[in-house]
Structure formats: structure tokens, C-alpha cells
Amino acid sequence: MAAAGTCGTGTRSTGSMVAAASTNNVTSFQRRGPRASGADSGCSRLVSIAGTRPSVRNGQLLVSTGLPALDQLLGGGLAVGTVLLIEEDKYNIYSPLLFKYFLAEGIVSGHALLVASAKEDPADILQKLPAPLIDDSYKKECDEDVCSHKMEPDIKMKIAWRYQLLPKMEAGPVSSSRFGHYYDISKRIPQELIETSKWHGFFLPEKISSAFNVESCSLTPGYMKLLQFIQNIIYKEGFDGSNPQKKQKNILRIGIQNLGSPLWGDDICCTENCDTSHSLTKFLYILRGLLRTSLSACIITMPTHLIQNKAVIARVTNLSDTVVGLESFIGSEKETNPLYKDYHGLIHIRQIPRLNNLIYDISDVKDLAFKLKKKLFTIECKQVHGL
Asked: What is the Cα–Cα distance from 98 to 102, expressed in whole angstroms?
């Protein structure tokens, strides 16, 4: 049954949310007590959730970002209870693709969705999600791309771009039980998948009225309403990790688009010495506290290139668990550089989470480029030979 966009009013105050964020510093998917045995084991229940798998490094429960190559770069996927921050490219052309991949993966995996935007109606966003590809179609697409590269006369250049991040595929139909899928951006997701999914929409213009007031030195109205909405869904729908669900466990995927932009009522991108910089960082602090105690994962796209205050960017990065930046070649010198002629931009893995630690990891993989083809968004690795 399709779920229409719902409105959560949230009965808990901002103070209670701050308290939850400060007192709960462990993720919900970590075992809190002695290991149980039999079918009632919490570990076994978590592993049985469709579209998830435990990390081979630390056992943390992971979900796919919807882009298997990105999952590989992040250590296997996105940890449940964490925030993935996507630094938008200059013209916001490619970051919406990662946002849509994340949501499409949720629908195919049977996860619940919470889509928040100040620019576009969440119902319209879902209608534009890419269609899942069966594996043999993906393999055919990759084979055609490799053949086209072999035909180029300058393939023996010293700087070679290799497809290290493209895993081997086995032919078969799309399955919700597998981890990570591939998507055809030239087609839209089938309507029946959207109708059978459970989702909640937050469209800021419909939630904020001119008469809405908040306390001084608090969050902006948009951030306050969104936190209340998220908190309401987490607790009422049973995604709160501290209150085990009676029904079968599931994952809540949260997608927040263009956070920090003026559309959210935040002037952080308009002036260097803005009065609401604390609103954005406070929002992220409270949000991360909510995620840490719930079976949820969040992706946020943010126009960080518009934020003039570098100290704010540093705080935003520290309050995020995983940070991925997109650098488009449009309008830059690299656009005419022959070394980059087959690619549309670079992708920077700025931060990988090390949960329950004071420090974070930095990816060892550098020089990553992305390409937007007719059907696929691919990430490829550059290697230098003989230089």
C-alpha cells in the first residue's frame, strides 16, 4: 500500500532531543548485553533485515548507498545509525543522482523512506528515481564501454584509467534480498514499486507558516519542524533502537536535500558572519543523536561550496560520519584537459567513520573520477604508469 506524505508534529521538545543526542553515544545495531541464543538473538534479527549486511571489519550493520562502487570505497556500505554528507557539485547536477540512488535502493530493498526537501515535493522526487537494472544488462553496458575505449588510438597513454571499482556480476533478476543494486538513469522506477513502498514526505513550504515562531537562540523554523517530523516517525513507526519493534525489523532511510541552502531559511550561504550558523550545526548534532539510537541511515546533500565561513564547514564535517565531495569539471580548466576528456568530475572521499572513537578514517584511495553515461553513473580509479 502506498504511503502518502505524512506530517509528524513530534511531541518531544528540542531540549529532550539534545539530551538524547548527548546521552546516547552508541549505535543501535551494536549488541548491548550478553549474547542471546536461538532465534531471539538480536544479532540474528539484525542480520536478517533485507538489504543489509554486517561489516567484515567491525560487525556494524550496513546498508547500500545504491552505488556499489561507492559502497566499496566506504568499507562495504553505509553504517546504520550514521550520516552520509554529500558535498554538492557547483551546479548541483551530479549530487542529486547519489541522492536518488540511495532512495531507489531503499525502495528495491523494501526499506521505509523519509524524504525531506525545501525545493521539490518528495512525491515528485520519488517519481524521478532510476529503474533497477538486472545484472546481465549492467554487464552488457560495461562491456560496450570497454570496447569503445579499446577503439581509441591513444589508449596507451601513460596515465590510464582502469575500472578497478566495477565488481564482477552474475546474471540474474533483481532481488530485494541482495545487497546493492545497479540502476538505469535513463528509465524511471516502476510505478508499482513506489505504490507498494512505505514512505513519508516532508516538503518545507507545506510545513511552515508565517505565524510559526521559535524560541530565540534556537533552531530555524525549518530545522525545528524537520527534527520533530523525523523524531515522530522514528518513535511512532518503531525504528527506535532502545524500544525493540514488535513486528519484523526494518530500516528507515532518511534523505534530506539541499540542507543549509537559503530555501531552508538559513543564511549560512549568504554571508560569512551569519547569525544562524549554530542552527545548522545544532541540527546535525541532534539528528545524529536520533540516528544513533535507531535503525536508520541518513543521506544529506549540502551546497558547501557556497558556505563562506570555513570554520562552519569544519564543524559540519565533524558532525557528519561520512563525507563525500563531488567536483564537477564544468566551467573549470579540467573540462578542456585531455586527461579528463572522458570524465565529468572527481569524487573525493573526505571522511570515513570510525564509530565510538574520537578520530575518523581517511580513505587510502585517491584520484577517483566519475562518469555519467547514458544509463550509468560510474566511479573509476586513475593510476599513473611510468611517471
From this structure: 6
CA-closest candidate to residue 383, choices 167, 165, 168: 165
pLDDT, one tens digit per residue, over 78-112 is 999 999 999 999 999 999 999 999 999 999 999 99
Angle, vertex CA 150, rays to CA 131 and CA 364, nearest 5: 65
Which of 58, 76, 35 has its CA nearest to residue 357? Answer: 58
Angle at 347 between CA 342 and CA 352, to 5 degrees: 155
Element (H, E) at 85: strand 83-87
What pTM does this model have? 0.78
The CA R_g of the chain, rounded to the nearest whole Å, is: 21
In this predicted model, what pLDDT tens digit does every residue of 235-253 receive, in sequence order? 999 898 655 555 678 999 9
Q: Using CA atoms, how far apart are residues 331 and 267, in angstroms rounded to an integer?
A: 26
Which tens digit of pLDDT belongs to each residue from 343-365?
999 999 999 887 666 555 566 66
Coil, strand or helix at 333:
helix
Q: Give me the CATH topology for the region 52-132+179-381.
A: Rossmann fold (3.40.50)
User: How is residue 132 written as a grid cell?
Assistant: 533497477
Provide DSSP, 22-63: HH--S-TTS--SSPP-GGG-HHHHHHTSTTEEE-TTT--EEE
What would the pLDDT profile of 23-33 be if each residue is shown by its tens digit? 444 554 454 44
| Three-state SS at 256 | strand
Domain map (residue ranges) of the chain: 52-132+179-381
Residues in the chain: 387
